[in-house]
Amino acid sequence: MHLKHLLTGMAAGLLAASALAEPIKVLDRNGSYVGVETYAPNIVRVTLATDRNLAAAGPGYGFIAKSDDKGFSHKSDDKGDDFVSSSLTLHVNAQRWPSAPSMGERYFAPSLPPVSLQVKNAKGDQVLSMNGWEMAPYEVSGEQTYQVGASFGTSPDEHFYGLGQNQEGILDLRGRAIDCKHWYDAPHGETVCVPFMLSNKGYGIIWDNPSATKIYPAVNGRTLWQSRVGERVSYFVITGTPDEIWAGYAKLTGKTPIPPKAAFGLIQSKARYASQKEVEEVADTYQAKKYPLDIMVVDWFHWTRMGQMDIDPAQFPDPTGMNKKLHAMGLQSIISIWPRYETAGRYYNELDSKGYFLKNKDGKSQDGLPFRSDRTGALIDSTNPDARKWFFEKARDNILSHGFDYPWLDETEPDLVPDGLFFKIGSGDRYRNLYPLMHVEGFADGLREYRPNKRSLILARAAYLGSQRTGGLFWSSDIQPSWEALKRQVPTGLNMTASGFAYWGNDIGGWQWLPQTTSATKAPLLDPSDARETVGQNHDYPELHTRWFQYGTFLPTLRLHGDRKHAEIWAFGKEAEAIMAKYDRLRYQLIPYIYSQAKRTYDTGSPFMRALWVDFPNDPKVANIGDQYMFGPAFLVAPVTEQAQTEKDVYLPAGADWYNFWTNEKFAGGQTIKVAAPIDQIPVFVKAGSIVPIGADIQSTATKQAIASIKVYPGADADFTLYDDDGVSLDYQKGKGTSTKLHWNNSSKVLSGASSNLVNVISK
């Protein structure tokens, strides 16, 4: 393809992919064109290209906002151009015409006319500077294109967070090399690329390029972004507090809907329930034991063969009847639906003839990959709107029509790695990270038409910019059932939620096959002798599973899963069962608190599981604490992630006093304390000046839950908005629902907004 045609097509594609935008101001810097586009007083987009049309084109996939220059002024002088609002100032430096290059520059310096710029916040403090940009020509998948990038200045005390899901187990991204691409086989666990990074200096950057991207935050005094394919650099800068930055992200890419209330209860899955009989027996046992449960999951290979999009009648003779039974018990269901098709399946020839599959360089449907163990099956091309529509309609008619409530869209990386292959919209290299947005959003659009006033819940294994608007519950993929994996989950989740994805979780217990022996050298804290059928001689696994469940109680979603013979609360021994049952009940008691946070996330874009640096920006000690976090405004959670551990050092951030959740003992902030962590407790603290509503015991969220008590942790004035609605419909988007504003006056010791007989003021 000629470069001229490539650039013309690129500009057209970008304009088609973005919402209609107001005109962009384009500045000429000696042949480097700089597009400046404003979206809110604290949001500005910068585009750099050598083609004026590309600099003037709108943003790419994932963005839904329209530009808005309200509140901005623009002035130009011999020093450059200033775009000024009440929240930020963008200054694009005037650049002299480059002088003749030196001998070294002829061979080793970029040939682009230079561009540099600075961003200041509302106080006039510089928070970001771009010092250079790059376009290095080369060929990718037959296209003459470029590697594109930009370089930003950093400061010695700057810290970075976000960039999706990277499971190396480190919170602060400073000094690291982040390979931002969807990668199921990443050694530490699947990576998910969300090119959105926050700095503790009061800004966030959203990088507008879906190709494989590498980011080097604060390496050799600069932060470098480099994308493998592109003809321009495009990025957004959002200034403000973390909450203001997340609000900006939501404005640009979409609001996070409130999931159905059932999503906040216990979700039970396993790899896999092989029959209708198993599903019903597990649901019956939960009912008999009176352990709260909301959702049963039917995982993969419920089909007769991959791509049949059917339900095997030998295993599930009456799926409609099964779902009716679950619904009568107050339960709902999720079923796994894959985008893969065997050549021998009933739909393969139809999809192949319509061109609905991912294709190789010869234009033929790609069947499997030679370097993967799962080498069979073609991938439906969800960048093709006709293929998306076909996929949803077949899933609706063949599967969901049996009464299943929600889909599990697995393999959304996609599992057929698209490098060197081709989507409908272009090469897999150019659109490397885009598939999960297109695939899941296509299904979500179909669900809205199919069930116009019912919320979506979609289990999804990968994401891209904007995926939070689809109703997805995201999880960390097929992780190992090990203490090491558990430990890495905590900072992994905190960076994923920092990336604008409030609903993240993991497979409680780890997904991969459970080794039937252990390398642990310490005596287990729980008796494994009555769990041999599940754990074999893996003596410490009941302890690991219990610790994981305790952590999961304080996650946005709580879902049991795993490739083992049994995966239910009672499958790991009587001692483990008693503790997990206790935490299961606690989870349901906390649903009014958690559900109120869900409404706040919908309204503001802010996640409610957050690293400590967010809520305590003036405490430098919390910058890289990745094994503790805030769960809503009240709870500080410090999961136990080491075998045989019965006490843990916990840092209590400065700026607040803290109550031990289990003992009500009060501590001053700004200190590390050693906390008892017997096997039935993980360290949990409540910030002084907190209001925590406690729900009555219920079997599932299908039952209307009363408020049993309202706990007040004194020490400062406090506010809490208690929210409730029907838990199922989209009426909350029309303003329906009940909001009760609670206020604690610490001086008068009075809680307003609630009946006094519900109030429980912690006095110890």
From TrEMBL:
Transmembrane segments: none annotated. CDD domains: GH31_N, GH31_xylosidase_XylS. Coiled coil: none annotated. Keywords: Glycosidase, Hydrolase, Signal. Residues 1-21 form the signal peptide. It comes from the Bacteria. Gene3D superfamilies: Glycosidases, glycosyl hydrolase (family 31), Golgi alpha-mannosidase II. The keyword Aminoacyl-tRNA synthetase does not apply. Residues 605-692 form the Glycosyl hydrolase family 31 C-terminal domain. It holds the Pfam family Glyco_hydro_31_3rd. Residues 36-214 form the Glycoside hydrolase family 31 N-terminal domain. InterPro entries: DUF5110, Gal_mutarotase_sf_dom, GH, Glyco_hydro_31_C, Glyco_hydro_31_N_dom, Glyco_hydro_31_TIM, Glyco_hydro_b, Glycosyl_Hydrolase_31. Residues 256-597 form the Glycoside hydrolase family 31 TIM barrel domain. Residues 710-748 form the DUF5110 domain. Belongs to the glycosyl hydrolase 31 family. This is Alpha-glucosidase. It comes from Cellvibrio zantedeschiae.
